[in-house]
Every structure is written in C-alpha cells, then in structure tokens.
Amino acid sequence: MxxxxxxFSLNPTLKYAGVLRQVAPEMxxxxxxxxxxxxxxxxxxxxxIVLDSQLYTSVSRHHAQFNCATPAPNRIPxxxxxxxxxxxxxxxNQQRIEQxxxxxAGDRIQLGRQGPEFVLExxxxxxxxxxTPDQQLTLTQLLPIFAIHPDWVRKAYLVPGIVxxxxxxxxxxxxxxxxxxxxxxxxxxxxxxxxFIYQLCGKRxxxxxxxxxxxxxxxxxxxxxxxxxIYVFRTVLPGQLRPPDPSFWVLLGxxxxxxxxxxxxxxxxPIAVAYGxxxxxxxPWQQKIGxxxxxxxILLGAAxxxxxxxxxxxxxxxxxxxxxxxxxxxxxxxxxRVLGSLTGHxxxxxxxxxxxxxxxLRPRYALLIVIVGLGLSAFLHxxxxxxxxxxxxxxxxxxxxxxxxxLTAAILKARQLSPTRSQNFATRFYGHR
Length: 433
Hints:
Layout: E1 16-22, E2 29-31, E3 38-41, E4 49-50, E5 64-69, E6 78-83, E7 90-92, E8 95-96, E9 101-102, E10 108-111, E11 117-124, H1 139-142, H2 151-155, H3 158-173, H4 178-201, H5 207-221, H6 225-236, H7 248-280, H8 285-289, H9 294-325, H10 327-339, H11 345-361, H12 366-390, H13 392-417
Parallel strand pairs: 3-4
Antiparallel strand pairs: 1-2, 1-11, 3-5, 5-6, 6-9, 7-8, 7-10, 10-11
C-alpha cells in the first residue's frame, strides 16, 4: 500500500478516509485501511506501508500497526496505533507509546526518535481516486476549492500569496506618495528575500522572535551605540571608508575594519541577546528564543541583516540619491539594494550566525569558530565595498555570488548538523514508492 492510491477497498458507508502524510514537502501519502489492520515497516512482503530499508535504518521490519474502529454509517472513522515491539519505539506527538493509543486528525507519528514522521489526516471519499477502471468525476475534481485541507496552506504558499496581494494594493494606494511607495516596496522585497532564506533553512522559528531580532537591530542603529562604534572603528582605528590611497588593497583593508568588522558586530548584537536569553529563560522559551544550533543563528542573523538593510537603504542611500537626482533614481537604487541583501547583509550575518550556532554545538572550539566567522563575514563585506569602487558591476557580481555560496553552504551544513533534523521541513524523506 505505497504511493498515492489505496490498494484496498474503502468502506462506502463512510464519508472520510484516513491518510498518513509524511512531514516533508511534496511527499507521498499512505492510505489506512478501514477494514483490516495496516502494518508499517521495512518488510516488503508483509507490510502494507513499506519504508526503504536503506534510508530508514531506525525503522523495524514490522514497526507499528494501525487499527480502525468502524463507527456508525456516515460517521468519521477512528484509528489507533500500537507499537509492534520495535527497537527504537513509536512516538505520538513526541511521546513514546507503550500501549495501543487512539489517534485524532493532526497527530504526528514518528518511527523512532530520529526516524520518519507522519501526520494523520482525514480526506473526504470524494477526494479518493477510484481504483476501478470506471473513474467518476467528483465535485472536488471539478471545483478544487472545495477540497481545502490543512496542507493547502503550506503547499500552495497561501500566506506569501496573500501578503503579495496586500502589498500590491498598498503600492497602488501609495502611488501618489513617493516616500510611502518606497517604504512599502522595501518592506515587501526584503520580506520576500528573507522568506527565501527561511524556506532554505527549514527550521520553524517563531515569527515574533525573528521580528524581534530585526527590530532590535533597527533600535541599535538609532541608539548611541552606532556613533560610538563609528568613532572607534573609523577614527581611532584605520577604518576610513575613503582613504587617500584609493587602490584596491588599501580600500579592502580600510573597509575590513570600518565597514566589515564594525557593521557585522552591530548586526551580531541581536544574536548575542537571543543567545543570552536562551541560557536564562526557562523551557520552552529558551528553545524558542535562544541559539541552540547553527540554524538558529542563521535565521536570527539574516533577520538582523534585513533590519540593517532597511535602515541603511531607506535612511541613507535612497534619500541621498532622491534628493540629488529625483525620486525615480531613488527607487532605482532601492530595488537592487534591498533584493541584494540576499547576497549582501543577510548573507554576511547569516554566515556569522551559523558560526555562533556552531560554537554552541562545539563549545570546545567556540572562540576559534566565532573568530573565523566574524573574520570571514567582515572580509566578504569589505570585498563587496572594495570591488564596487575598483571593478564596478562585474566585481559586485562575483562577490555577490561568492557571498551567496557561503550562505547556502552554511545552510546545507547546518541542516545536516541540526539536532532537530527529523523535524526540518526543508529536508526531504523519501519513502518506498
């Protein structure tokens, strides 16, 4: 019983069928029998739901069994699950079961602590593809809008679509107000770039924690911390951004101190605050807010980098260009600067956040890891500034690609190292199909 269609006959007196959907994007669904026990495991001869033995080594040959309690006609059936003496156990909503356990829609079933995870869902029988040659046209086939189920929100990218519609309406409404138009466009483009990073990371971090990191960075840039840092790095230290000698290597050295180190330290402050709160707050708040792995650091760092981008672009670059050349020129600067944060500020600080999170997993080498992370992020930052002055657009393209490679490599390695890898929605689990 693998793949998208049930191999057994469904009870025609019931309006709903049960299905296990694997917790990973665009994965197979496994139907549960309403008339006989459904066995899940690695044995292809005797199991109804067969999982690949090479991919799922933590799954036993006969791991778990689902039993259906058939109710009165036209009622929703109810399933229970029982562990079949598996080595690594069966978990329902992260709790290991010791006896037969009743299930409800939305329950999460995991085979072993680090094994594949599934969600129990109910689908109307009108959604079930008939296994007989005479296939009937159903209402939900003709009008899919009536087949809405919880997965629709995630797989159809419903929230990004709604946000886009709202942004378009606000842009139309602000068409006569150039300043409001620029702010709305910057907010939308920056959020879209960050959403891309969030989807790559695949770890669920509360939205309000990410928003807090972004907001804290904006507040830091409006506080006395910024002028104090500018004085130290650009006056006391040799970090003048436009030194008398404009050669590439001199520019690189000055920008490494005055732009790279200074700005990356500013953007790392929200990550440090989250790290401290995570050590001080009680559970579960410490896990939600704190930095416990590289993915936490990347998400918080990228959010901080986005806050920095918005403040720098809307508060400095766009007003300066618009005041000198007009609103159209300001808009032309805004779009590449905000979208470019994906390979700019968010990439630099995302990589630094990866190193901060890695230092938590490898505390013995914490100081070395953080120094390397700060140095590399500052170097990429300085390389961007120096290349812009020395080589123009082609230099920026090369540095932007390099920064993006650093970020995506960090994300992929962070997903591999993640202690919560089995819950990562960006990691695909492939069942036997």
